[in-house]
Amino acid sequence: MSDKGIGISIPIDADQLFYDVNQTPQARAAVRGRAQKIATKALAIDKKENRGKSQITLVDRTLANGRAVTEVHSTDVDGEYGNSKTKRRATLRRAAGGLGR
Q1: Domain map of the chain by residue range?
Q2: Radius of gyration (Cα) for the chain, nearest Å?
Q3: What is the spatial distance between Cα 58 and Cα 81, in angstroms, rounded to a whole number?
Q4: pLDDT, tens digit, 9 for 90 and up, residues 20-54
């Protein structure tokens, strides 16, 4: 017996495979599920620190490389970044598990 393969070559387009996997309902649902957890935490933080004034929304999209993403948006821009009149709360960063203050 020989240890040699039978000489079959199958080309794989890794970029297309990455794109296809990211477009599956399972992948999209997993990404959106993580974003929903962040949004829920952000709403709790906003309720505690900003009297629930912010609106948190989710936006699904696909990046140029094919990666599925769900962005978590907040209407509280001043509170996210801070300014001369508003203390920086960084609600989304904190909800996503970013570094604390």
Answers
A1: 14-95
A2: 21
A3: 19
A4: 999 999 999 999 999 999 999 999 999 999 999 99
